[in-house]
Amino acid sequence: MPPITAAYPHARPRRLRQAPWARRMVRETTLTADDLIWPIFIIEGKDRSEPVQSMPGVERLTIDRAVRAAEDAAKLGISAIELFPYTEESLKTATCEEAWNPENLVNRATRAIKKAVPEIGVMLDVALDPYNLDGHDGLVIDGKVANDPSLECLVRQTLAQAEAGADILGPSDMMDGRVAAMRGALEGAGFHDVLIMSYAAKYASCFFSPFREAVGSGGALKGDKKTYQMDPGNSDEALRETAMDLAEGSDMVMVKPGLPYLDIIRRLKQEFACPVFAYNVSGEYSMIKAAAANGWLDGERAMMESLQCLKRAGCDGILTYFAPEAARALKA
Ligand code: PBG
User: How far, in Å, from the CA of 51 to the mean position of ligand 1?
Assistant: First the structure.
């Protein structure tokens, strides 16, 4: 009989980490391409793309190229893409009419993509920042972002986007009552199946600045968005916003940004047991790209770890500029 001794630990967590097969066998969270939504930027023109300086590897694409990008994304198994327009200055007005022009850039892009690649979901942002001169998500009246007049614009924008064939609408404006207004309009017009993924817990974050360069709203932004986006010090408020959005008819909710807000993702998932998404925003993307370009981090590993950790925190899916790169890495 070998001696039984307490000198050695009987419980050894390292046994489960001894080899790749064992680690795979007990891994709780696995990222797949199904989890990914890819945000892309659209510009006017034909067969052309331009780099976004502050987001290495990201380009603004003309509609024909966006169609090809959507085809590639579908082949990679990415579930959906979100389209953001780079709106020409001449189309921006204080009253934001371009937002509900059926022929605006994103509506044309949506039609082209849904026709060529019907198997991929198309999501559009509902907010006015691409269409006004102040860079704000709502209408600016007497120097303030005016809630209820903004809702009327958002409803018009919603209907034009649904008409264009968008599958998912993402209100990112943070006006009070927007989801109820949008849902009422969609139901009234017979768009019963259009999904709403509300930016429910959207924080007034500095991590959005590369995005604002990408859509050309950064230079324009007057002041900040703190009267409508949430205070980074708050967590209970995220529950309240989410409860309202779900009650108003949102099908899914989003936390934005992602990585600094993992606790919010976890709280929402636990509290509401509904589909929760994280937006791994432009600043989170650019930080990794910048560190990798300097040789300070292994960019691919930092990307995969970030996405996996967002999922571990509790989200069902992730909006990320890394989507094609991550999907390719998952296939390899
Ligand atoms: C606009 C909008 C923003 C983002 C998505 N929709 C910027 C903002 O609120 O100022 C940010 C996305 C990102 O940083 O990747 N309503």
Answer: 18
Distance CA 109, CA 103 (A): 9
Coil/strand/helix, residue 234: coil
- pLDDT score for 7: 81
pTM for this predicted structure: 0.96
Which residues of the chain are modeled with pLDDT < 50?
A: none
**Amino acid identity for residue 219 in this structure:** G
Integer Cα distance of 31 and 316 in angstroms: 10
Residue 2, pLDDT score: 66
Predicted confidence at residue 4, as pLDDT, reads 64
Annotated ligand binding at 241? The verdict is yes
Top mutation candidate among 96, 150, 208 for ligand 1, by most atoms within 8 Å of CB = 208
CA distance 245 to 152: 18
With a CB cutoff of 8 Å and minimum separation 6, the contacts of 119 are 74
C-beta of 172 in contact with ligand 1 (< 6 A) = yes
Whole-number Å distance, alpha carbon 321 to ligand 1 midpoint, is 13
Q: Could you tell me if the CB of 325 is within 6 A of ligand 1?
A: no
Q: Evaluate whether 103 touches 149 at the Cβ level (below 8 Å).
A: no
208 CA distance to ligand 1 middle (Å): 6
Q: Say if residues 94 and 53 touch (Cβ distance below 8 Å).
A: no
Domain at 31-331: CATH architecture: Alpha-Beta Barrel (3.20)
* 85-118 burial: b if 16+ Cβ within 10 Å, else e: bbbeeebbeeebebbbbeebbbbbbbbbbbeebe
Quick check: CB of 248 below 6 Å from ligand 1? no
Torsion, Cα 168 174 176 181, to 10 degrees, reads -20
Phi, psi of 316 (to 5 degrees): -90, -20
Does 92 participate in catalysis according to the annotation? no
Closest ligand 1 atom number to CA of residue 207:
14
Is 131 touching ligand 1 by the criterion CB < 6 Å? no
Nearest residue (by CA) to ligand 1, atom 2, is 172
Take residue 248 and report the two structure tokens written for it.
């108003």
